[in-house]
Amino acid sequence: MSKHRFHVDKETSYYPDGKKVDVFSVDCDGDFVISAISRDEIVDLVQVLNFALTDSENKKEANNGK
Fold first, then answer.
1. pLDDT the model gives residue 65
2. Number of domains in the chain
């Protein structure tokens, strides 16, 4: 398990047309990782990262099986 500390902040922002949107910022150990990202984009990012991790593990297992 990672020893890094992640923190997420949520703020409310508005598009120029007045539409309200939640904006998230993510930092790791005090350094910004991602900022100004919407909830839907975070969900998309998590899905992509999950796919990448799963794919990496599958390739690692395939290489160890040789």
1. 66
2. 1
* Distance of alpha carbon 29 from alpha carbon 57, whole angstroms: 26
**What is the number of residues in the chain?**
66
Rounded CA separation 6/26 (Å): 7
Q: Is 21 in contact with 13 (CB distance < 8 Å)? A: yes
Domain that holds residue 35: 6-64
Is a pLDDT exceeding 90 seen at residue 37? Answer: no
Question: What is d(CA 64, CA 2) in angstroms, rounded to the nearest whole number?
Answer: 23
- Cβ count near 45 (within 10 Å): 13
